[in-house]
Amino acid sequence: MSGETSAPGASPRAPRPATQKSSGTVTKKGDRGAKEKPAAVLPPVGEEEPKNPEEYQCTGVLEIDFAELCTLSGYTDFPKVVPRPRPHPTFFPSASMSEKPTQEDQRLSGSCSLNSVESKYVFFRPTIQVELDQEDKAVKEIYIRGWKVEERILGIFSKCLPSLSQLQAINLWKVGLTDKTLTTFIALLPLCSSTLRKVSLEGNPLPEQSYHKLMALDSTIAHLSLRNNNIDDHGAQLLGQALSTLHSCNRTLVSLNLGFNHIGDEGAGYLADGLRLNRSLLWLSLAHNRIQDKGALKLAEVLRPFELTHTEVVERRRLLLEKGPLERMRSPSSSRHGESKSDREKSQAIGASSVALVDKADKVQTMKTPKGLGKKKEKSGEVVKKDEKSGSAQSPVQGTPKKEDSTKAGKGKVTIPEQKPTKGKGPKTGSREKRSILLESEHLGQSLDYSRPSKHQLVTEAMEMVNPLLEPVEHRDGKVFMPGNKVLLHLNLLRNRITEVGLEGFLSTVQYQAQFSKAKSASKGPVGLLWLSLAKNCFSPQCPTYIMIQELMLPRDPISKAKSREEEAMASST
């Protein structure tokens, strides 16, 4: 055993024979001690040899690098790197082949029973499965299933994973993660290639539920799966705050899978709060949770016009005051020229009395805001600087909103119309174009951290988003209403505990988004949900409300649209 273990790490263990010879020249006791030394030397060697992996130069071949680093770190038995098994192609045996193999198998079953048992257990041996690129055989995805990933293994990964230039995804399923090892795992992610955009941690429940650290502001993860992690309302609160707060917002995460957890109404409310000011998440799954009507209504409310809270209104005023001078420099045209006839007709229908009230309220708030502005600037100085550096965070989906001028509200202006982007800004794009931009940015590994310059500056400028609080708003009865989150395209609430009461909330949301998308059909922009799953909840499939929701969503579903086009093409060809 000692000869086998010393072969891979020959450099640190080379002096061992010399020590045995020198001790052997002294006494016979020294000889006996030298013979016993190899078994006792293994623990200290494990402590001394971490210096050797630092000197190892990774080749970019995970199978070789991982084996060498494990050997140098003192491991004698470690998982092998193997290609991910693919399902076998369908095989149709002929009549001649169907008889002979069965007879031969019966004859050989007694002689090779040991081999057959071993082959059955090969599946359960710890391995690192990899998905390879078909052309250059580079590692694209890593799958680890069913064995505990310890701190030392993560240390080895931190040395060999950065050399994988085309790594796109890491999948860890039931690997016994702890809050400590999760922190170590998050620390190694920035070391990996910029193409790494997908992380899946499924079946890894954590006591502190610190999964939100994966969604930090400097994170580049675009696709995150946290299924089957026993996430409850507290964990959902942390995730909701990571999606967005009043002063921060995750701008890289595109899809989030929270299926098969323990999220209830309170947790759904926290996630809905995170969706209020988040404009990057396109795909959200809350299937197989414990959400009832209260949580469903909160989620539905965020997807249609909702009232801003007092703190949100104050923050919006502050952002408008800071944005005013910048807008004057960029866009010399007054907001009066940007008004459309529909806006004026709407404002006339509301009446002069409400306009006067809004005008007074706007004037009072704009006069009061500058007094405490100095303190607010100190508190949120970093956020302000980010907004200024990013050019007021231009959105790829919506045009730059006009500066709100409360003194001109007397001319019947109630809503703030959208303005066409100037030549220097990113073009307006629809939801499909936004997804293509996101996929392109994923391919380039673009992190949306605007505080640092990037080599993919053009992609960043196209991806910059306007602060949702600066979106066009509507004033009603002295309250400020935002148009709601129309960026979320996919929402899965399969197998929860929603009744017809919760369905009513989603029906009004779908009706509003359908009307809005018809009005926006001429211009490009986000139009809201394209896919909504409410099946297997606590209501009958024949429920009239559910049937109405399905009928409204059917023409919006891109898959059904593609099928109908294929059917039309087939019919026209015949």
Automatic annotation (TrEMBL):
Top-level taxon of the source organism: Eukaryota
SMART domains assigned: LRR_RI
Biased composition regions of type Low complexity, renumbered to the chain: 1-18
Listed Pfam families: LRR_6
Ranges for region Disordered: 1-54, 89-108, 325-433
InterPro entries to which the protein is assigned, alphabetical: Leu-rich_rpt, LRR-containing_protein_71, LRR_dom_sf
Stretches with biased composition (Basic and acidic residues): 28-38, 325-347, 379-390
PANTHER family: LEUCINE-RICH REPEAT-CONTAINING PROTEIN 71
Protein name as catalogued: Leucine-rich repeat-containing protein 71 isoform X1
Organism: Equus przewalskii
Gene name of the record: LRRC71
